[in-house]
Amino acid sequence: MEFKSVNKLLEHSFRENWDLPALSNYQGVTLFYRDVAQRIAKLHIAFEQCGLKKGDKVAICSRNQANWGVCFMAATTYGAVAVPILHEFKASNIHFLVNHSDAKVLFVDDIIWESISPDAMPELYVIVQINTFKFLYTREPELLDIREHLNESFGKRYPDNFGPENLDYYVDSADELAIINYTSGTSGFSKGVMIPYRALFSNIQFAHEDAEPQLRAGMNCVSMLPSAHMFGMMFEFIFEMSIGMHVHFLTRVPSPKIIMQAFSDIHPDIIIAVPLIMEKVYKSKLKPLIDRNKLIMGIPVIDQMIRKKFLTELTSSFGGQFEEVILGGAPFNPEVEKFLHRIGFHYTVGYGMTECAPIISYAHWDKVKVGSAGRVAMNMQMRVDSEDPRRIPGELQVYGPNVCLGYYKNEQATRESFTGDGWFRTGDMGIIDEDGYLFLRGRSKCMILGPSGQNIYPEELEAVINNFNYVVESLVIEDNGGLTALVYPDYRQADIDGLDRAALEKRLLEALPEINSQLPNYARIKKMEFMPEDFERTPKRSIKRYLYQRN
């Protein structure tokens, strides 16, 4: 792989697509590539006048929106390090991450600004309102003048108007730090993953040359995953900007209703999602129809007609124009996946993690193996630490340009994450079959040791439980030597169907023998408990398992 400057890729894209739409707030403002370039140029002037140096950190904490993209690219193309922070974090977490990252500039929206205290972040030069670029706080009073005179400074810098010929972005190098991405993960606390430019370039190259070569300038993408999370940041934003696509940010909570409306309006050419979205669509729209037609679906001609109808309706509900729906970030329910495969829906399940920016494995929709997470991605290598990697699960380890530099100011965690020969330890368990397809078995840290030393992967048990009616989500934990299933029931749907809380919980408890009949003897559930509200989750919608452990 011959490395090319990521910032120069963006510069080239901006020049080539100057008059095309770049970033939109769904049902709101649209910025063309020329508008984005001009805003970046103004921020570069402000950075310079505030004393920001190459390599300094710029934190961004707001909901998904067009100016989030502007601020991110303004940081990297200036030569600063971008530090995306999830807006869902509490004020104390934001203070900690801003300080830990050594950020000098912080972009926030109004909701974040109301909750944070500048005094708790003493190293900041300036806090900027992301929608207006107004300076909300400056360490030195004279810095306020920079914003007041920014348009004047811009006019002096570019007296003959601002055009594509004025672009000259910072030239990054392969191992140079581009992003510090904080992730809580499902089994611990936040660590600052140091993403180098080579990882960004390798992921862009993978998307452009291998995964989605049909995508080109002017096509559409809906950004519904958190931009501060690597999966959404890379494949719903950075890659699209590098080839001139139009990114539509959902600026509100991405409920299934809002997502489907956006797909209907925008007709995206590629869809990036987490499995939970697909599972909700399946449970709410498709499963009731499947249950009603079970008897006649066994008749070949009718079965074929029904499957075609399902495929047409599901494809239409996702906008009807996409090449494929790429799912990642969490395990996919096996029942839902088998159904999608059976009707021929264009989906695929990839695998990655923040530490690989994020891609590790993938297969195009027409090369999918049900239950797998695809094959190793372009530029990467992967192996299983097992005496028999095809049959006995072991820890998945990876090597290649996608792999991070380590964890910011955490040498111990960095050392523990790499093997002696330099491979990154993912912490995920799996096997790789004879065709090179990866089958994940769960997190090594989540694995439960059975009564006779058997390895129990709770994700596999949860997949069985989640298939039952009125189960939104479940979590299997070790509890006094046995297994307990924590279940979040669909109380709302039950109420619509005439079941009160007590009746619903009784029905689910009565389903326990049927659930256990589908599980090995050593992995049977002893007890079921009900959660009054949804589990606490990470940005990619995985349950924060460590919060619910009892042993």
Number of helices: 18
**First-to-last CA distance:** 46 Å
Please tell me the total number of domains.
Answer: 3
Mean pLDDT: 92
Question: What is the rounded Rg?
Answer: 24 Å
How is the secondary structure organized here?
Elements: H1 6-16, E1 21-25, E2 30-32, H2 33-50, E3 57-61, H3 66-78, E4 81-84, H4 91-100, E5 103-108, H5 110-115, E6 126-129, E7 135-138, H6 144-148, H7 150-157, E8 177-183, E9 191-196, H8 197-211, E10 220-223, H9 230-243, E11 246-249, H10 256-266, E12 271-273, H11 275-292, H12 300-317, E13 325-327, H13 334-343, E14 347-349, E15 351-352, E16 359-362, E17 375-376, E18 381-385, E19 394-399, E20 406-407, H14 411-416, E21 424-432, E22 438-443, E23 448-449, E24 455-456, H15 458-466, E25 471-479, E26 482-489, H16 491-496, H17 501-510, H18 512-517, E27 527-530
Short summary:
By secondary structure, this protein is α/β, with parallel strands linked by helices. It has 18 helices and 27 strands.
Word description of this protein:
By secondary structure, the protein is of the alpha/beta class. It has three domains: 8-17 and 30-196, Rossmann fold (3-Layer(aba) Sandwich); 271-321 and 324-443, Rossmann fold; 450-548, GMP Synthetase, Chain A, domain 3. Helix content is 35%, strand content 22%. The protein has 18 helices and 27 strands. The strands form eight sheets. It has a five-stranded mixed β-sheet, sandwiched between helices. Helix 2 packs across helix 3 (66-78). The longest helix has 18 residues, at 33-50. The radius of gyration is 24 Å and the shape is globular. The two termini are 46 Å apart. The model has no long low-confidence stretch (mean pLDDT 92).
